[in-house]
Write a structure and sequence with these properties.
The chain is α/β, with parallel strands linked by helices. It is built from 32 helices and 14 strands. The strands form three sheets. The chain has a ten-stranded mixed sheet, with helices on both faces. A two-stranded antiparallel ribbon has the order 1-2.
């Protein structure tokens, strides 16, 4: 009888190993859980697991009512999925694999990684840490991810209560009751309908755009801010979020003051003012906003109930007006109301602009009445299904409110004349011969209004709707309802938007307002801030100046929502897949342009102020570079633009005038050789491509793991340190193979490296000579692939990785100095050599001062040796340095050679301070230097003349880097030249900031690696920083235009 294994993992088991006993135990546990819930598990049939569709067993069951949801657990051995009845670890598609860990919609499940499916079974271990692609904070798979919302007590609204009601209440404002009749009087019925239609076109296009964005993925709280920021990125989102939240906060004050003014008018009619008009508005406004705050803080459910009550009152007021239009009382006729008359309709159809009003000024007054379409979207976080609710609720609200606006405009224009005296004695008893006005035809003479001011009629009385209605107090109640509902909606919207903005940490100073309270995560701190802003503006009570700015703030957000849809469609991102299909990118662009035009129509200075504020905030957020990645359309368009330009560039032939040094720099870890990185960056920044090559050697599996981690880490490091470079890691058996791979494959189209940059191998005398052979062969490979080669040598060295700990990023480069992080424990002081190395590693980050760049242009390589120092002098840190040019020549032709070089440099338009012709370049070097060279190469010589032929041949075959006697004799002159050049360099350039010198070329197969390395060593020893440069002998300079 076999013993049963424990349910937990054992050391020898992989997370995905097949263990039938464990699996059966897991199945039994699931069945037991189901039985405990009162629903016995059905036994498996035909040897198949009961969850063949991919829902595997879990340690526990999530029971809701009579439904059982089994989630498989990817973190224990009970996870064993029998997909389609077969033994496989593959998981079938399901929504839980695609959740963000921060989403509170359910459990985030992790599908098996590719390594877990693909690697040999014994190699499968606990999965790696890492972030899923584009996710906002995915923790390691070691921890079970269970972000499940507590659904109990959370209030979520449907599309009617959450969007339709809010939008209708916000769109139907005071304008409906006290300004629409005046607009009809000024513009006439025809143009009034046109005004309403124009406003509706703008809001409808914005509604369509909002619907498109809202249905392109899950929408969280934040309304307009969330939609814009996730579409256009944090720069536009952060700018619009702040002003939109502020606009909503000030809108609370506007609506409350509108309510207070109406109440004060009623008090004045009955002569019961408390203090005076302005102070009564302040008192009533302050009391009102405190009550509204109480409703808001009580919770969204209470606020929603209040909105329903206010909507009912508003609808009753509209019905009251409509009924009133059919009841023409005799007492109302002197005030201009005659019920529906064709004469009045005909007379009022055309415009009659007075008091310098125009069509656009009337439109500017009406348009704010059409805003409010984002009231539903602004509480997107409190909607049960924002993707469905926002399009349905917003568009239906626009349709209903537009029809009501048009209906009331036509009704009031057909019932009420423009001017009326209100005097019952102005009736006509006898027929007039020149009777032309509608009032005259209806037996009233209001001709006196042409010479004196009248108080009644469309043009003179803002309370026309009260006068027409069947029950006037209900219209006052409607005005109260319209103002209070709009104030309440804005009071809820502003904190929600501001909280979403603060959660994203776009403005770190506002972080404290991100905190939410209670089940609904209510932004209580935001409510208090909104209340204080609103109260402040209520106490000012001068809202005529601020009102157009608020309207422009709303319009700016509408414009950006429309532009977001155009931008996302233009970027052709595969992630742009709105479920709402009734949008068009060009119509959205037209909508954005119309919003900008309307901003100027409403108030030109307010429009300019809005643009300045948005631009200022945009620049601020761009400068701060918040560390967020939302997959915005800005990123998508940047990619598309880069792709299109790269392809276009590929079709263009190279031209010498457009040559740029595009460098593949073998840095290893970019932070390990800062001097190499900064020097190359100095002449490639904003000029050419720079790729930091890093060859990972060792076991392939380990290297691949390191590469995947390093790719993102070091690219971020380059960006953080303002290096305009790319990081390119590769795995290879040795440095030579890796460098070959990079030289052949790095880059894209014309954006490919053409110059290989290496650091000088300082430790070559102490290291394994096979490594030296590999190093020198890289030079040969580069020349074979037609690359230029640059070798950089600092006498202190380049590599500081041994000072950084085991590959950890303990050092950060700045442009002023090199700071190690504060050590956690006691650290031994650096020795003198390391201290000098550390100082040397930062020397190219500092301003170089008034010194020289010495160019030893001994051999014509196409001009790269001259181009690099010129590019250095164009940079701010090097601009004070002068170029000195050194050339080889003959003693009897020094003046001629100098003039010839001066002519060439002037044709190349390269400034130089001096040209020196070295006539003694071929003089034999000092004897002690020759002796020192011979002593240096002695350990690497073959001495074949002292050995038997077979032994010498075998030794040369096994150690090809060894220097033969024949080779040494053959290249004696070249050896002496390198030694002599070092003497001349010490004589003429020992004080230069940097020396740029022609790199000697060794014939492949002719010069051994040890001899070539010895040449480079003796040539560049004990000097200021040296760049040994050899172009690919294609011209990189031209004097033709």
């Amino acid at each position: 009888m076999s013993r049963r294994r424990p349910l937990g993992p054992t050391p020898s088991q992989s997370r995905f190993q097949v263990d039938l006993v464990t699996e059966n135990a897991g199945r039994a546990a699931a069945a037991a859980a189901a039985a405990a819930a009162g629903s016995p598990a059905e036994p498996p049939r035909d040897g198949r697991a009961s969850g063949e569709n991919g829902a595997a067993k879990s340690k526990g069951a999530n029971v809701s009512g009579h439904h059982h949801h089994y989630y498989y657990d990817t973190h224990t051995n009970t996870y064993y999925l029998r997909t389609f009845g077969h033994n496989t670890m593959d998981a079938v598609p399901r929504i839980d694999h695609y959740r963000h860990t921060a989403a509170n919609l359910g459990e985030k499940l992790l599908r098996p990684s590719l390594a877990e499916l693909h690697d040999e079974l014994e190699k499968v271990r606990a999965p790696n840490d890492g972030f899923a692609n584009g996710e906002e904070g995915t923790p390691t798979r070691e921890a079970v991810v269970t972000y499940t919302a507590e659904s109990k007590g959370v209030v979520k609204f449907g599309w009617i209560k959450g969007v339709l009601v809010r939008c209708m209440l916000n769109i139907w404002g005071v304008m409906l009751f006290i300004r629409l009749s005046w607009i009809v009087g000024q513009a006439g019925i025809g143009l009034s309908v046109l005004v309403i239609a124009m406003a509706t076109i703008v809001t409808t296009i914005t509604g369509l755009s909002t619907s498109a964005i809202a249905t392109n993925g899950f929408v969280r709280g934040g309304g307009a801010y969330y939609l814009i920021s996730r579409s256009l990125g944090p720069e536009f989102g952060g700018a619009i979020g702040l002003i939109f939240a502020f606009a909503n906060a000030v809108a609370v004050a506007m609506y409350v003051v509108g309510f207070a003014e109406t109440v004060v008018e009623l008090l004045k009619e009955h002569s019961i003012l408390m203090v005076d008009e302005i102070n009564d508005i302040r008192i009533i406004g302050a009391i009102t906003v405190v009550l509204l705050l109480g409703i808001s803080v009580a919770g969204m459910e209470w606020e929603a109930k209040a909105q329903i009550v206010l909507l009912v009152i508003l609808l009753l007021a509209i019905i009251d007006f409509v009924i009133g239009t059919f009841i023409p009382l005799e007492s109302k006729k002197p005030k201009g109301f005659f019920s529906y008359k064709s004469e009045i309709f005909t007379e009022n159809f055309g415009p009659d602009f007075r008091d310098e009003e125009t069509f656009f000024s009337v439109f500017a007054i009406f348009f704010p009445a059409a805003t409010g379409i984002l009231a539903g979207a602004n509480i997107s976080g409190d909607l049960a299904d924002p993707q469905s609710a926002i399009p349905k609720g917003t568009l239906l609200a626009i349709l209903i409110t537009t029809l009501v606006y048009i209906g009331i405009a036509v009704s009031v224009g057909s019932c009420v004349v423009r001017d009326a005296t209100g005097n019952i004695n102005d009736t006509i008893t006898m027929e007039l011969t020149n009777c032309s006005s509608a009032a005259c035809k209806l037996n009233f003479d209001f001709s006196s209004c042409e010479t004196t001011d009248c108080n009644y009629g469309l043009m003179n009385n803002f309370q026309v709707m009260s006068m027409v209605s069947g029950f006037a107090p209900l219209i006052s109640a409607g005005i109260f309802s319209a103002t209070l509902s709009s104030a309440l909606a804005s009071l809820v919207s502003a904190p929600k938007i501001f909280q979403a903005l603060c959660k994203d940490n776009i403005y770190p100073a506002f972080q404290m307002f991100a905190k939410g309270y209670g089940k609904n995560n209510e932004p209580l701190r935001g409510y208090i801030l909104t209340f204080l802003i609103a109260l402040g503006f209520i106490l000012i009570a001068e809202l005529n100046v601020i009102a157009p700015i608020i309207s422009n703030f709303f319009l700016a957000s509408y414009a950006l929502i429309n532009f977001s849809v155009f931008h996302a469609s233009l970027a052709k991102s595969p992630g742009w897949r709105p479920a709402f299909k009734y949008y068009n990118m060009w119509i959205s662009l037209i909508g954005a342009i119309l919003c900008c035009i309307v901003m100027f129509v409403i108030n030109w200075w307010a429009a300019l102020l809005t643009y300045v504020i948005v631009l200022g905030l945009y620049i601020y957020v761009t400068y701060k570079k918040p560390d967020v990645n939302w997959g915005s359309s800005t990123q998508a368009l940047t990619y598309l633009s880069a792709l299109q330009h790269s392809i276009r560039l590929s079709g263009v032939e190279d031209h010498v005038k457009n040559f740029r040094p595009q460098c593949l720099v073998m840095t290893g870890s970019p932070n390990s050789r800062p001097a190499l990185l900064h020097l190359v960056h100095a002449f490639t920044k904003n000029v050419g491509l720079m790729v930091c090559g890093h060859v990972h050697m060792g076991p392939r599996r380990q290297a691949m793991k390191e590469i995947s981690i390093d790719q993102a880490k070091y690219q971020r490091w380059l960006i953080k340190n303002k290096m305009k470079a790319f990081y390119a890691p590769v795995h290879a058996d040795d440095l030579r193979d890796g460098t070959q791979y990079l030289m052949q494959a790095a880059g894209l189209g014309r954006m490919k490296p053409n110059t290989l940059v290496l650091g000088f191998k300082k430790d070559w005398l102490q290291t394994d000579m096979r490594d030296v052979d590999t190093y020198i062969n890289i030079f040969h490979d580069a020349f074979d692939i037609q690359y230029g080669v640059v070798v950089i040598r600092l006498k202190e060295g380049l590599d500081i990785s041994h000072l950084q700990g085991q590959g950890s990023l303990n050092f950060f480069l700045t442009y002023s100095c090199f700071h190690p992080l504060e050590p956690k424990g006691p650290v031994a002081p650096l020795n003198v050599a390391d201290q000098r190395l550390l100082e040397a590693s930062t020397q190219f980050q500092k301003k170089q001062g008034k010194n020289t760049i010495d160019v030893w242009w001994l051999f014509d390589d196409g001009g790269l040796t001259l181009l690099i120092p010129y590019l250095l002098t164009t940079k701010k840190k090097w601009k004070d340095c002068k170029i000195r040019v050194f050339i080889g020549g003959k003693i009897n032709r020094i003046d001629h050679d100098r003039r010839a070089m001066a002519t060439l440099l002037s044709k190349f338009r390269i400034d130089f301070s001096d040209i020196m012709v070295l006539g003694d370049i071929n003089t034999k070097p000092k004897k002690e230097n020759i002796t020192a060279f011979e002593e240096m190469i002695e350990p690497f010589r073959l001495h074949e003349d002292d050995k038997e032929q077979d032994i010498a041949d075998k030794m040369k075959e096994d150690e090809p880097w060894r220097i033969t006697d024949n080779e040494l004799e053959l290249y004696k002159t070249k050896t002496y030249r390198q030694i002599r050049l070092n003497e001349l360099l010490k004589e003429h350039s020992s004080t230069a900031n940097i020396i740029v010198m022609s790199l000697p070329v060794a014939r492949k197969g002719g010069v051994s690696s040890a001899l070539y390395m010895a040449w480079l060593e003796v040539l560049s020893r004990d000097l200021p920083p040296v760049l040994l440069v050899r172009g690919n002998h294609q011209s990189v300079l031209t004097f033709y235009s």
